[in-house]
């Protein structure tokens, strides 16, 4: 019985010691050198470097796995020569890699030779360009235990953060950045109709009566045309009345007859056979028929009246059909030159007193994919209405901008009218905000692979930027593009956040 009791006691003590050891490991105090990693992040004007390293200990190899991202497109660095240097005081060690482990990922191994505080330098050479990214405050330890302990304490908290690896972000339209600091005025959002500028649209009308004949078999709206190109023809052949060919022949015959009579009477007048009165009457008849013939000859020929494009552009609207009878003065076709666009925004009367303070605008095409500032479109605000009509109780605001294919004449756009700036605020791109049940969130960067979801209070929005009233500090880096995909990564149960990650 005593033997059994001793055996059970020994077993319980053994289990207790194992549990204590596991608890120590889970707390990080028992981590081995290769289990603890330091996360280092630094930026230059052109590159982001995110590196995972072993703790720095004199005489120990330190593995460095560095991710290099271009800040213009947030894509991985490729085809570059990279040198890493550890400098502590006057001592330094370095290593160069000419080839990446994977696109954007370079691996190094350094062995510190002296303890102390220093910096890690990454020299990037690509084609004829050189760049330097420096990570400051690198602590090199004499004792491995102290290095592991401090590295464990420095590990960023990740209980509520979202893992989104560099390999994931490189595959999508992704970017991070700081909130913009500056002034932000009142904004009036209004729908706007789009039309060609009055000077860039012309309506061609018929100069004679007859039947419409398309020259090339068909003419379609949106078709590009050249100045002077014949679009269609007005013909009168086969018609009893308003026959263009008969008119042309009659005018030509009258002109030739009057000219012959005038020339004959000129010779007779020299011999004093006819009077000056008869000569003047003949000259008058000649001039009259000449003008009529010249006018018809310019606009008509035996096959009808050619209708020519008066400017280069595209067919905006076709008012007639092939074979249709038209009277002189009937609109035939309108042509628009792709040069300037007119926007007519309609604003509620309650904003009347604010319109006088409007200085600029942001314009969003109907598709929502393209957003422009007024300056980008070389635009100007022409005028705003000071009264309303019976047809509409809204106030018109007229804006003229350069042509863009996304701003379709006859379509619509959203216009954000911006007043004079007032007050110092921070703002973020609209693409940085994620909405959930009426609340807005941003993703704050903890490391380039770890993001914290943060609720913010928003203010005015101009279609491109949104004012942040609270919840975010000016020097907190956030996801500015791809925020919705970071959100999806947080709720996904099928994607390993480290899928494809090199360790």
Ordered list of secondary-structure elements with their pairings:
Elements: H1 2-26, E1 38-43, E2 47-53, E3 62-70, E4 81-88, E5 91-97, E6 105-110, E7 116-126, E8 129-140, H2 144-154, E9 161-163, H3 166-170, E10 175-177, E11 180-183, E12 187-196, E13 201-205, E14 210-214, E15 224-225, E16 230-235, H4 244-270, H5 276-299, E17 305-308, E18 313-318, E19 325-326, E20 331-336, E21 340-347, H6 352-355, E22 358-365, E23 371-373, E24 380-384, E25 395-402, E26 412-419, E27 424-429, E28 434-436, E29 439-447, E30 450-461, E31 465-470, E32 478-481, H7 483-491
Antiparallel strand pairs: 1-2, 2-3, 3-6, 4-5, 4-7, 7-8, 9-30, 10-32, 11-27, 12-21, 12-26, 13-20, 14-16, 14-19, 15-18, 16-17, 18-20, 21-25, 22-23, 22-26, 24-25, 27-31, 28-29, 29-30, 30-31
Count of beta strands: 32
Total tally of structural domains: 5
Summarize model confidence as the mean pLDDT. 84
Instruction: Calculate Rg over CA atoms.
Output: 40 Å
- Name the poorly predicted regions: 1-31, 493-500
The biggest beta sheet reads:
7 strands, antiparallel
- Give the number of helices: 7
Describe the global form.
elongated
Strand content bin: 35-45%
What is the straight-line distance between the termini? 54 Å
In helices, the fraction of residues equals 10-25%
Structural class by helix and strand composition: alpha+beta
